[in-house]
What does this fold into?
Amino acid sequence: MKVTKTIVVLTLGTLLMSSRATFAQSEPPIIETQPESQTVATGSAATFSVSASGVEPFTYQWFFDGTEISGATDSSLVIAAATFDDAGDYIAGVSNDGGTEFSQAATLTVTEAPAAQTFLDFNGDGKADLLWVHADGRIAAWLMDGTNYLGNISLPHRAPPGWKMAGQADFDQDGKIDFLWQHANGSLRAWLMDGTNLLSTVNLPRRSVGGWRVMGLNDFNGDGSTDILWQHGNGRVAVWLMNGTHLLEGIVLNNGKSLTAGWKIAGLVDVDGDGDNDILWQHGGGRLAVWILDGTTVERAEHYKFSGKTSSSWRITGSSDLNGDGENDLIWRHSNGYVALWFMNGTLEPEAAHVRKGQAVAESWKLRNR
It folds into this structure.
C-alpha cells in the first residue's frame, strides 16, 4: 500500500509538473502582418487580413469599432459591398492556448461611388461626344460641349472587317463606356474600353439571330445591367435581358406585333417624362411614332406629333444625353451630311440645333451613337 501511494503521488506530481511545463511553454500569438487601412467607394469590396506566428492552432475574431462581428472568425474579413455604415476601425484578435493578441486598428474609409458613365466622353469633361465610323474601319470622335464642336480625335483602333458598331454601354460595370459590335452573321462582340484604349474583347452568347439587328441599348428591367434591343427585318421587336455580357432571357415585345411596313426603330428617348426610355420609330417618309414602355411592356403606340416638321431627307441616326440633363437627345443627319440635335425634355416639343454650324460630313462617315 505504501509503495502504491508513493507511485501514485509521484505520478500525479510528474503529471502536474509536466502540465506546468507545457503551460509555461505556450505563449500568445505574435502578430506578423497587420491589417491595413484602406479607402473604397460605396459598393466596392474591402478585405482586411492578419497573420500570426506561434503555437498553433489559432482562432480568429474580428471587431468593428470595439464590437465583436458575428461570424467573422477567419484570418481575413471580406466586406463584399461597402456602405457608409461600414466605415470605421477594424481589429483582429488572434488566440491560442497561451492567450489572445490583438492587431492594430485598420480604418476603412468609404467614399461616394462616382456616377456611372452613361455616354461617350473621350476627353473627360463630363460632356457627351459624337462617335463616327468610316467605311474603311477608321473610328473618330467629335469632342462636344452641347452643340459646340470643340475638335476631333482619332481612336487608335479600327472596326474589324465585317462588323458594324451596334451601340455603346458599360457592359463590365467598371464605370467606362464599352463598344458593342454586330457581325453580318448576327454575332455580337463587346470591346471593353477605358476611354480610347481597348482593354479586351468579349464574344456575347450566340443565338439564332438571322434577320435581327441591334437597334439600341437600355436597362429595360431596372436591374442596373444594359439590355439589348433588337428589330427583325419583318418588323418584330425583341429585348435581350442581360447581366453584363451574359444573356438572361429573350423577350418578344408587343406580342410580336409591329408597325406597318416602312417603319424602323430610330432611337430610345423618354417621350412621356416618366424617367424611362420609350422606343421611337421613323418611317421612310420621315414621320415619327412612339411606343410608350413600362419595362418591356408596350403600354400604347401613338404618332409622335409636334409643332415642327420632319422630312425623308432627315434621318435619326442615334441618341445620347448631349446637354447633361439625364435624358437621351436625338441625333439627326441630313442626306447632304448636315448634323442636327433634338434636345428632349420629356415632352413632345424638343429644342433643335445644328452642329458645327451646319458643315456637312462625307457620306462615308456614319454616326454611331446608340
Observations:
- Residues 1-24 have pLDDT under 50 and may be disordered.
